[in-house]
Amino acid sequence: MLRATVLGATTAGMGLLARAAWGIPTAIGASATAIEQIATGSPRYGNREFRNTLPSAMLQPARAGSVLVSMLTRGNTGTPSGPVPMVVPHHPTVADELAVTWYGHSSALIEIDGRRVLVDPVWSDRASPSALLGPKRLHPVPAGLDELPSIDAVLISHDHYDHLDLPTVRELVRRGPAPFVVPLGVGAHLRSWGVPAERVVELDWNGQARVRELTLTCTEARHFSGRGLSRNTTLWSSWVIAGPQHGVFFGGDTGYTPAFAEIGARFGPFNLTLLPIGAYHDEWPDMHMTPEEAVRAHGDLGGGLLVPVHWATFNLGFHGWSEPVHRLLEAADRSDARVAVPMPGERFAVSTPPDLDWWSALGR
Q1: Smallest Cα–Cα separation from 275: which of 259, 290, 258?
Q2: Which one of 52, 55, 201, 255 is least enclosed by Cβ atoms within 10 Å?
Q3: How far apart are CA 254 and CA 224, in angstroms?
Q4: Where are any strands of DSSP class E within the chain?
Q5: What is the β-pairing status of strands 270-276 and 303-309?
Q6: Could you report the per-residue pLDDT of 29-83, keeping only the tens digit for each?
Q7: Which domains, ranges and CATH numbers included, belong to the chain?
């Protein structure tokens, strides 16, 4: 009887592991060899990896074990104390001159001069190659992909799982003809997943693509990349979205860099900036901005309205769930920066930003 119980438990455990591992090789994406064919020739690429302009401290392999233990034992740190309020967005038939819908984390739909650009779309329940393991959403997606309006372009900042999601990509391919505009190397992942080559535009920093009336410029960021055991095989970036009348800056995922001032001088000022404010930690000081650094970057860029992203949806750090927003607003008050913090799913015109405090009740 005991033997049968043990065998049954072992079989169940193996089945769970098999389900957790199902599809992981495909989700990881293209091989380093396939990526290298595109990356070779970039001044940022050498020895089969991309590099930041400035030396940048990141989590050292020797510290990875202790950080993992801390993450597994952090308890409720980084989670909201109750359900996160959301809004089901309603989009007009014709895109606005300047509006944004935040879907959570770094996923947003930007309306600019009558066109729509979807940035870093992640609709899966986990930021992971596995459907059963990895960081899980702290709130549902406010609306399904089938409820999105027509899109003119999809922008990807880099290949981490919380910014590039295989199921989401495949569904977007099925639902419309929008091109995917991505940093160097990321296109290899997309093509390996069946995205038609003619719908993939790969750019190095300062490279540009025209999509209808919009100019999309791949700009510098300070980060890293990797979906498997290898790091930095693909490029990471921020993005300038320029229309005939308005300009938007999307930071993607980045640490603070003096390059923001250069981007602001060359392409700014911007009516709207979307900048990451979460998952900062002393172990990786140059990879993610603190909220105070986001305010500084917003100023460097000549930003009009700042909308924070990269927070609230996945627990990727060790700070309190709403701490990034509290720190952001305190820093913005000191700098006279304009900030809007929408609820997940909330769509608003940049001329009439929301000002409701919906996060404080869920704890710092």
Answers
A1: 290
A2: 55
A3: 9
A4: 45-46, 49-50, 98-104, 107-112, 115-119, 153-155, 180-183, 200-203, 208-211, 214-219, 238-242, 247-250, 270-276, 303-309, 338-339, 347-349
A5: parallel
A6: 999 889 998 999 899 999 999 999 999 887 555 555 555 556 556 678 899 999 9
A7: 98-352 (3.60.15.10)
